[in-house]
Amino acid sequence: MFEIAELGHTVSKTDYNEKVPTLRTQLLTIQQQLSAYNFSVIILISGVDGGGKGDVINLLNEWLDPRYMRTNAYDSPSDEELERPKFWRFWRTMPAKGTIGIYVGSWYSAPIALRVHNDITDTDLQLQLTQIKQLEQELADDGTLIIKCWLHLKKEQQKKRLKLLEKNPETAWQVTERDKKHLKMYDDFASVAETVLKETSSTQNPWRIIDGSDIRYSSLTVGQHVLDKIKAHIETHELIQSMPQPTQSPQIIHGNQPKILDSLDLSLELDKKVYNEQLNFYQGKLNKLARLAHQKKISSILVFEGWDAGGKGGAIRRLTHALDARNYQVISIAAPTDEERVQHYLWRFWRHMPRAGRITIYDRSWYGRVLVERVEGFAREQEWTRAYSEITNLEEALTDHGIVLLKFWLHIDPDEQLHRFKQREQISYKQHKITEEDYRNRDKWDEYSLAVNDMVARTSSQTTPWTLVEANNKRFARIKVIKTYCEALEKSLD
Fold first, then answer.
1. Domain Polyphosphate kinase-2-related, which positions (predicted)?
2. CATH of the structural domain 2-241, one choice from 3.40.50.300, 3.30.300.30, 1.10.240.10, 3.40.50.2300
3. What is the pLDDT of residues 120-136, one digit of tens each?
């Protein structure tokens, strides 16, 4: 791949000075147009040491409007970043729709470095590249334009560039011992990089390999490439928007489809005396286990889904009563805010991932995409159907990091729900919980049941199963939730 790259190109200072004003004007114009569109742009600048990555990035920052772009530079991960799944630090800095994000030291840096230093095997590298391709596909499916540029130098060119930088007192600081070490490992680096570029260059997200030996040439080439890619993406976006949109498929209830929820025994209950005894026992046990997990830096994520008035809030309160308030957070998910609406739908969940030893509890979660957004038509069919695999990828990233992930569905029947609605209307401090929308949703019980059954069937795995909670009796449901968490913590601590 490197053999056929655009190597040996130069641009004279005169030509450069003539072309830059026009290119800058075009970039600013297209950037202004981009702000009106419902997609973001990610620019990855990678390549060999000494290839001029910093110079190109500085010029892009000079040529573009800083109000609608952000440059994110990544080196070795901080303690805060190491305590979370590896993609967390990239997700939290994703550019909002209508803006540009430039990444220096992207999700490709670590896999390449680890393989060059033999810290991972070829099999491990392939696994990490698969995860990267999944990430880029998820972003592209959401409309994100990913522009990937690799600035390349031949070995002798790299050696010459580093010597020139080191010779000049004003640039000598740019040459580190790591750069010198990497120069000695050039052949290994080039071999691994070539494998990575071949594996991750696709029709949708291709790599552009650019000669980095002449900064004027590489800067103009990168700038023009960015301009052309954004132009083409806008044209494609407008073409798609102008096409007739497919009608949302009606929810079809299949009478012969297995109904997982129907298998639950909603008559299960606990009397008050037994409940109080077990609540005291399991809350005490959870307190000890949670403190030990905190000491051992084992994180937890608990996801609560269920019917309106299904008892999620009550179960969460009994659970958090046993926890140290300094070590957990409860994230209540409602309709996305303006800030969240201009991001990928998973962004608002990634940003709340807990540090090592901490607990995040989601009162409703990323499953809204395949539940309320599916049933109410807030998500197009292609969006919620692909969400099953996107969610599975997310949860694999969490469990691979060692996070204890539990998913609870609190199930009640329609009669019990109506009874609780009526009760809420009579209690002053619960009246805010009941709205006309809650009653309206009852008319779509069958549609939601179908969506829940699909969700459980398609997102349960050996490592991330759903815990279905028989919740007609609140006392039984609360004990089952706390007991299940205790058992999961015990297993993880063992």
1. 11-233, 270-491
2. 3.40.50.300
3. 999 999 999 999 999 99
